[in-house]
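Appendix C reproduces, verbatim, an entry submitted by the partner laboratory led by Prof. M.T., so that reviewers can inspect both the input and the predicted structure.
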Amino acid sequence: MEKKVLGRMNQRLERLLVWGGFDKPDVRIVVRNQIYVSLGTSLVIMLVTLFSRWSFAYLAGAMLALVNFWTLARVVQSLVHDRSKGPYLLFVIFMGKMTLSGLVLWWLIGVERVPHWGLIAGLGTVVVNITATGLVQLGKK
């Protein structure tokens, strides 16, 4: 039963990712897993801690990581296939992303005073995702 549910969920998410411009299956797997890690761990932590301030900081970090990861994966995938835009476009997008991320972090830490460790833990979901996905892919070979 749970394999059916997970299979349907994967299919819907795959369609969303293809619609979002992720043509390569390997890229879709990594982005899909990042969505699962970010949203899944955020939901569990929020329920376990009864929607504490720390859990909202974790959610904010996980969402920021997810948006950055999504954008980076999308840009790198398109640049690999169309090299005419080259490093200049990557640099401009990277600087824009870092500026926006910096502003969001400044607002969260400086204005909202969110718990730092919750935010850092949420941002760390990317590391967990890449490590887990890499190990699973390595195990398949």
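The longest helix spans residues 53-81. Additional entries are available on request from the coordinating office.
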